[in-house]
Amino acid sequence: MSNEYDVVIIGGGTAGLTAGMYAARANKKTLIIEKEMIGGQITYTHQIYNWPAGQGLSGVEYSMKLQEQARSFGAVVELDEVLGVDYKEGDIVIKCTSKEYHAKSLIIATGMKHRRMGVEREESLIGSGISFCAVCDGAFFKDAEVAVYGGGNTALEDAIFVSDICKKVTIIHRRDQFRGEEHLEKILRGKPNVEFALNKTISELHGKFAISGVTLHDKVTGEDSELNVTGLFVAIGQIPNNKPFDEIIETDKAGFFDIGENCKTSKAGVFVAGDCRRKDVRQLITAAADGAVAAVAASSYVDSL
Q1: pTM here?
Q2: What total of structural domains would you count in the chain?
């Protein structure tokens, strides 16, 4: 049947696409299922600085190249949403919106999603001034005053990107030091239109139909202040997209798959890869490594059947 595969991979980010490339190269009939966007979170990155021999690629360029590479070895890529999985060793049924797929082996590489601020009216203002993608939406705020909320690499990269488009950029971070890489902070410190609001959180959003400003709460002094902005780029982290699978695979307290470096789960033929599993370092390089490890293991499992 056309919907039967040796290896099915759920997730089309770096881990999933790398897994697809390795499984297809091992002559396994391979399917990659992605719900939203090929490439995953890296597509939001303006430029990649830390990929070996790939510095300067945009996240979108990188994702398209990786997809093309996986397809060139025979991997099939489908856009669909996985609703659930029925596990039976040797015949795993993946239930999607459009159809069901059967797999001898399954790799779950579902990544993470954007963490919300938890502020009143946040959801209603997404797309009306609130954005999670500076690369996607930065051009809409040309010559405007905007803020970036967060302190990791994504937040710093977003701030660098919009600083070349916007009149003024304020970086809001709840601590007095950034978690992101030092060289990114150094770039921002040298930009005249970038300001820093440290030890502060966003406690209130202003604007009836679109963002007009935010209230900042100082965690040290307890004082509140107002910041007028027409754009707010939120980059405060992600949470794992593991809910449809947490009944068949063990997770830790944070919801990440509680699986080690070998990417093997307690279910024969089921593997996990990338940012959806517990790990100390979440970078492109570790996601790709997971994809390779999981695919090699999955291919070996299929050979053993």
Answers
A1: 0.77
A2: 2
